[in-house]
Prior knowledge:
- With 122 residues, the chain is mainly alpha-helical.
- It has one domain.
- Helices cover 86% and strands 3% of the residues.
- The relative contact order is 0.04.
Amino acid sequence: MNSRRDYRGTRAALFDGIEEGGIRASSYSSHEIDEHENDQAIEGLQDRVNILKRLTGDIHEEVESHNRVLDRMGNDMDTSRGILSGTVDRFKMVFETKSSRRMATLVASFLALFLLIYYLTK
Length: 122
């Protein structure tokens, strides 16, 4: 609040020398005017810093959200890998015996025939 008063006081000082007929010599030095410009530049930088702070906060939230999605996806992939390895183990058991190989060949042939007919009718 004190800086606001200083700002108003400085602003009044800047326009103090203006009259209807022109500008009269001001009693303030260029050092005080430079200080006012510096204060304005600092305020502008503070605004930019606040914007960047909010932006980095938003980026942080987005990164956290993506990390959660990737963690869930990794867990789902691990679950799928477990299910798939169990299925592969079952297929290995089926192909160990000769009669099972014949059955698997028959099933694969019917599946290939079905896919061929499907693509021909499409």
